[in-house]
Records
---
Amino acid sequence: MRVFDYLSHLDRRIIFLLVALAVVIPMLVPLNLPVDITGPVKNVYDKIESLPEGSVVLISTDYDPGSEAELYPATEAIIEHCFRKNLRIYMMGLWPAGSELGNMALNKIAQSYNKKYGKDYINVGYRPGGQVMLLSLGRNFGDVIKVDYQGIPIDSLPLGGGVKSARDISLVITFSAGDPGILHWITYFHARYGVPICGATTAIMAPQMYPYLSSGQLTGLLGGLKGAAEYETLVDKKGRGLRGMDSQSIVHLLLVGFIALGNVILVYQRRRG
Amino acid sequence: MKTILPLIIVFCCGFYMLATFFIPARFSQTSSQTLQNWYLGVMAFFVFIGIFNLIKINVDKIQRKLRDWQYSIILLTFLGVMLGAGFIGGRDSKVFLYLFENFQVPLGATMFSLLAFFVASASFRAFRAKTPEATLLLIAAVIVMIGRIPIGYLIWHKFPDLVEWIMQVPNTAAKRGILFGIDLGLISMALRVLLGIERSYMGGER
Amino acid sequence: MIVGQIELRVCDTPNDDGSSITVEWNAGPGYRIFEILRSTEPDGDFEKVYEAGAGETIFIDSDVKLGKNYFYKIVGRNDSFVTNSQVAGPVRPEVQYFNLARLPVLVCIIVLFAIIILYITRAKSGEKLFVRKIPALKAIEEAIGRATEMGKPVLYVPGIMDIDDPQTIASMSILSRVAEKTAEYGTSLYVPTSKSMAMTMAQQIVKESATRVGRPDWYNPDNIRYITDDQFAYVSAVDGIMLRERPATNFYLGTFYAESLILAETGHSTGAIQIAGTAMPDQLPFFVAACDFTLLGEELYAASAYLSQEPVQLGSLKGQDLGKLLFISVIVIGVLSQIFNWHFFINLFNIE
């Protein structure tokens, strides 16, 4: 059939156009699909819920603008939860752009909760060196961090001066798009110092983390935009995660359609010999 | 000497760093820390070498009016503006943050979003049931793609649980198997490098 | 040692550099805080060194001097009563020169090294070792030949990580051989790098490879250039090179992340033959779907040994295979241990 001959050589640009429409149309006409909560995401939520007030949570924003669409909504949702529980946030980043993105979320949400910089939260900015830096950090924060991201001496800030080593951190939450990132925190912080680690990764990286979830090295995991949407549901704060799920749903169905079409074409070609 | 000296350094530093993993004593951890700090220092210095290389190649392109030399002007201009904004105003300066939030962030997100289009074209081309293994892969991919979206839960409330099982059991088992192989390959390559059997990364005589 | 109503245990922190003492306690419910007090004499002045909350049961005191004796006691408080534990000590922080908790790791490393060295020795003695064909590596020379016939360049992408990454080292080893072939045939070789150190290393490797085959004139340092550290800016630059220069052969060998599919699909659209290799398990499916040949995980690390065909290097591959067989046996025994509760075997693999 001519249709199948045409489809077997379908111009990629038509595929791209259909994907673009599948993303844009649900944004204009929201479907408001309900989101189910999965175990790994619930584990993150339960872990933060279990922390006593005043506990220090180290948040590491290890991503760049390319992954901002997937990880920034998760960053906001988790910071929201931490401040709601009156936990103290110690933010840093293993990627240069990540610390700026994290800072945007931190300042925005801290304002809405009337949190004080230096006492309730602190941002020490980008720390280069990857695994090498993390090994030093866990042993003695003072070896690696002298000033915060604004250049203020760290010891002059109540929260900064109070965190001396990994033992002062109750939980590490890393928003990770690659390397250095979540695996470094697991290897060089959890394995060496026993600090529990929760993570949020891009959807592509999430399957790689399941062995660490099974073994308990990773306490909980938010995978991709769906993970962010689930967490927004748990903290009851609609954000970009929930808004993006409609588009993601339609695109997934479109991909399944493409796969089905490709296999129908294969069957047709085989029959034609 | 040109070949022997680097090999000696690789041998000594490599096995010493391995030993410090097992020796908790202060002299071991301090020296290990020092070596790691040296690496950080060297790495920071190399950033300048990359920037000089970038500038040199693009200035040369402009001077010789090679193909697309106009883009080199744009590149060098923005390189200068970002560097200048950062050095003069600091990382919190309005100019630097404006350029970061309105140029770098959207551009990076745009490039990442290309994946959505490329996944579609790759799926259409490559996910064909040509062999039994490819069919199995195809079925698993379809189940995971549907189960990962809210519509999957609406179709069948156990769909997400099925997806979690696929991710946590066969997927995890396969990943662990691949990781074991990778780690063994890494150990073998590391030993070849440490013992000087593998030298092609040095560019010298093998 | 266990003392009093609040059970207090103190000991030198195991497997450390003698800079801390571990204080653990067990107390009934009802306490609001625990004050940990320390002195250098059993009857001396005790000073408070830490205040623990209700849920805490362990404190690592790292403000101690090596070789000095210390005594501890705990005061548990709530709103209506105070309980003192008995004094525990003396305890002295001491240096450990070997981390016993990591002994299983050392044993595994020694066993693996011994196996690999054994096979290297056997290879040196002239024993012929069989290594299976790896299609991707067999295709390298053909792919370079294709580019030469078409009069188009070869593009080599060594990943986006720096030279401290083992995959980058493995990639550079393969680059050395690819550079030899391209220099021999006079085909242009582009190597855009994402890291400055990787650029320097690649330049050195390509130059030396060209010299080795007697073509030092072929080497052009501008073809091996630094692009940017930013992941997606780098991939957009490489995509631009592919679309402008139209290389006939693309190599993607090293560490890749999300950009893997962008590179592979763009390369596919230009009609290039593509050979990829990475040890990133989540990127392998993209390369398998979009490239003609893919080196899977450990094949990337084995590539240099395989391409050299030197008996000594091939010997290490055989040793690696035997190591894998050993791991499979350990996994099978481990599964049986869990089923039959052979705790001794399971406990051998607890690592701190």
---
Amino acid sequence: MGRSQARFSAEHTARLARIELSSEQADKVQGELEKLLAFVGRIDELELDDIDPFYGSGSTEDSTRPDVLQASSPRSEILRNAPQTDGEYFLVPPVFGQQESRED
Amino acid sequence: MDLSSFSAYQLIDLLDRHELSAVDCVTYFLQRTEDRNAQWNAFMTVAQDSAMEQARTIDQRRKRGESVGRLAGLPVAIKDGICTAGIRTTAGSPMLEEFVPFYNATAVQRLLEADAILIGKTMMDEFGMGSSTENPHFGATRNPWDPERVAGGSSGGSAAAVAGGLAPLALGSDTGGSIRQPAAFCGLTGLKPTYGRVSRYGLIAYASSLEQIGPLSRSAQDAAMLMEICAGHDPNDSTSAHRDVDDYTDQLDSGIEGLRIGICRDYLTTGLAAENAEALEEALNVLQSLGAQLVDIELPHASHAVAAYYVIAPCEASANLARFDGVRYTHRAESSRLDEMYSRTRSQFFGEEVKRRILLGTFALSSGYYDQYYRKASQIRRLVKRDFDSVLADVDLLVGPTTPGSASLLGQWKDDPVSMYLADIYTVSANLAGIPALSIPCGSDANGLPIGMQLQGRPFAESTLLQVAHQFQQQTDFHTRRPE
């Protein structure tokens, strides 16, 4: 428990989660998450070696449907909620290019 | 006519007998909402125009002698995390503040096919992550029994709407107690169905292996009716069960003589407010007087369930909420770089509690920590399930508290997530195990606030829970009590 708390890094985890944190926010989150990790640390109290994990109890039957074409969701409806489109595609800032602004 | 205290059953009876038109019924609830919603903040969005349009159509169909659905003309409120075509669906998040789905959740679609009227979308904790519906972005929902107190959460708006007589019936969703706890705080009947009993299609996902859509209602009878309409396999949700839906309402009138009810005595002695324990003891006496047999049982791993839950739910949330990245859903923070656009959008439009849970889940799933957190929590989940399996092989259902105390004061859990999480102690186990669980009112505390009693049953034995609840409600009047 103590070991894991020492290793939690708000900055690293925020990067993985794609959440931008200012250094002030990171300090706050660091403290909050250490408390939460101490709280959930109770899971260390039990002897669990031979226990199969249980991930949930959905239907165990395979679901199949007739192999026929079905209309998919209309493109215009899907795009309607998007912040930026060209009417056909979602538009996003460039993935490549503008390397000069990159710090990492 | 004061329709605000009528059950859904009573309203449908009036509507069917042409003693009340759908337009008059909807007008009544819209007017009452207009008068009271500013005080209680139960609704996020009131669907005034579409509700009136639906009502007019139903009245015309009735007039023409056409057949109408089972809920024809009955207003139903829908939690705002459940998609409604053409009606804004925010999930309580600034991220989805302007999101308008183009399809209905299956549960909503089935209500519409039964000719229910969607009267509005109800307030909730952001993405269902919370137990008080004190939404920092859209305001706190207040408890109609005492506006200085919370209505519970995360389906707090649905609970306040039904308790305050703004709607006779509502849909909520329950990931760790989010139907049952607000039902307990507001004096309602609230059911979390067995995992897979109701389709999750169109429920904005928080923790997919734990959550279910279910009713918040004035009686077990109303809950049974709603379940007959909403439950059942759905090709759009592969986790929904291929299994016929029971005739829940038919079974309500069967007596409960000889039923074996398990009581976990630890629950009655540890951490439970004295008044709640007393109310529960009296309720057990009522059940015993109806011929039920009380059996002491133990759930040895229940005390570890909350910790396991607060690993598993955030892990699933961290994956489910990855889709909100500024590309598809309404809001985007500007940046010239894609990766920065993602992280700024998520930073700006997710609230504090959501970010906390995403970070907790991301960490617990990250390289080197998966076994230590997610796997271990899932092993405890197995133990919690085994406890229920073994106990429910011997008894028909379990009865215990829904919450450690009655509704808390507004602001009581501010900046103290751990205390808020601990209040879920009695409810999260049913989500971990996937079993059905129901809360019904069983008393009042010294402040006149409702006290809830929880019934938990075997997988797909909703009928037993509803039957016991209905029989209890035939003997008691807690469920007919109203605020004011």
